[in-house]
Hints:
By secondary structure, this protein is of the alpha+beta class. The chain has eleven helices and 23 strands.
Amino acid sequence: xxxxxxxxxxxxxxxxxxxxxxxxxxxxxxxxxxxxxxxxxxxxxxxxxxxxxxxxxxxxxxxxxxxxxxxxxxxxxxxxxxxxxxxxxxxxxxxxxxxxxxxxxxxxxxxxxxxxxxxxxxxxxxxxxxxxxxxxxxxxxxxxxxxxxxxxxxxxxxxxxxxxxxxxxxxxxxxxxxxxxxxxxxxxxxxxxxxxxxxxxxxxxxxxxxxxxxxxxxxxxxxxxxxxxxxxxxxxxxxxxxxxxxxxxxxxxxxxxxxxxxxxxxxxxxxxxxxxxxxxxxxxxxxxxxxxxxxxxxxxxxxxxxxxxxxxxxxxxxxxxxxxxxxxxxxxxxxxxxxxxxxxxxxxxxxxx
Length: 353
């Protein structure tokens, strides 16, 4: 196998895994093979410095706070220089005592102290990940019923309430009656102690993978519903006269009957038979249905029918996805579509083998 194709194949598989990670939340919900994992973070409105961003958040609003200043109000060179970016400058004058002729010039200006106000809010910094179906053993009851290859096994047990509640360290009637089916007996004396009684039903049900029977174990209906099996019609015909007396009754519906010949007719009443001979089966022919269910010649996952499941089959499955085509042998999970889940299962088959 060309190494180049192998590398391309696994790059493609890696792309399928990482595709979900590139989605935003809306794209993630639109893709049936992806699931959004939430990561809720508490934020403050005052952390937003941009007016447009602030107003785009429902819980926040931009509060305009503007102050007006005049350079002439700053009486020292240090305070004047603090606002040099707004056009203020200190003009020195040496006349007079203490240089009282010096001043801050530059006119008036305004400072925008607007802030983003409002209440705290929550943002979702979650990520989109590939949503692989859980194993049957990991499913709860509703999930199990929705799983195509899983079945729920009922396992109910009845436990005595007296045995469930350990009262060696002391217990109360509330502890007892909190358990469904249990009741508390209030004792009246030392010879009549209080205790918990009744029966409680415990559901130990679990989900397991459906054991699919082999093709040869299936009837016609089961066989016809399984893509990997094929029902073979095998009908023969035989004569009723070849059947034994004990087997004849099995084919009464097909026209076979039990009969016998008279070996002694009456002498006076000649139409009356006084003795019959040995019974035998007659009635023409009957149908023998030897039809059976057999395994299809193809193997799921073996797309090129070379009796091996390998990287070549993975590449063929990927091509089916890219071109929107269908091949029964590529539909590993038998959901009538070929998608990334089938590719993953083919890869798992290769790794397990």
